[in-house]
Write a structure and sequence with these properties.
The complex is a heterodimer of chains A (about 120) and B (about 220). Chain A has about 120 residues and is an alpha+beta fold. Chain A is built from two helices and six strands. The longest helix of chain A has 19 residues. Chain A is elongated, with a radius of gyration of 18 Å. Chain B is of the alpha/beta class and about 220 residues long. In chain B, about 40% of the residues lie in helices and about 20% in strands. In chain B, strand 7, helix 7 and strand 8 form a beta-alpha-beta unit. The longest helix of chain B has 18 residues. The radius of gyration of chain B is 18 Å and the shape is globular. The chains are: A alpha+beta (about 120), B alpha/beta (about 220).
Chain lengths: ~120, ~220
Amino acid sequence: MHELGIMETVLDTALEFAKDNNATEIKEIHLLTGIIFGIHQEYAELFFRMVSKDTIAQNAKIVFESVPACFICTECKGKTEYPAFSEKEFYCKHCGSKKVTMVSGREFRIQNMVVV
Amino acid sequence: MDEIRIIEIKKSVYENNDREADKLRQQLREEKTFLLNLMSSPGSGKTSLVLRTIEALGQEFKIGVLEADIDSAVDAQTVARTGTQVVQLHTGGMCHLDAGMTLRGLQELGTRDLDLVILENVGNLVCPAEFDTGASKSAMILSVPEGDDKPLKYPLMFSEVDALVLNKIDVLPYFDFDTDAVEERARRLNPNIPIFAVSAKTGQHTERWADWLRGEIRAWNSDAC
């Protein structure tokens, strides 16, 4: 359900940047989402269609790019990337330690957009 | 025909909310009001823990409560019976509270004379973790019947909070709930998190939770000087 609020923010931001850049139509919006960030892409698209109706973004294609989760091991300082979310426990792939700190994977950014 | 262009945005979807949350936190610091954001699944015992907290700290601190739910006022009515100031917020279908909604609730409650406001967030382990409400500290409850695998399934919530309360320990004998496993899984996401195993129903060990909260409130107020 949080996809609704988030996609409203995406729309508002996109419209604001479009206005500042004198764009007449938004063709594509590129979003960067960390794999730990729980967003359901189909719902997000559906909500975007709802909120963007009758705006210059109504036909915009939403492109998701996922960012892997990155952990630093507190013991060997090694870096481990997890490209997809799973329920498996996160651990350091270098030394096997389970004491790892997440440094990325939670972000949700509006990266750029294609306009005319 | 107009030319196709790429406009760089590189903006977090949380930027506006984070800004409002920081502003609210600053205002609360100046007013010496501590805001606790309490999160959990529905039915884990948020309202029961709120009642125990009022019982433990109500003499020392002036307490207010914000109850957030999609609908109904049952939690607010329960809390109001203790004589505590309470405001019921309806999110109207939204699964979480953001800083703007929290601010409106606080304005209705009036925070100037309050030392502690407990925000009982919408029952949900996913969405509330993603939005900064402007709280001084956040805590979550995991109750025994929910199972010890929850830190694996909802890692964001467990990594965002400042304290974890394991509630309903009075029913531990009836469930396959491994307290040590939960603590280990939670600490992997959040290495220094304080964990309090309590029963809000019987009152067992709830003083440990209250002691932690008292310390946090005092630290918040002394930082404001």
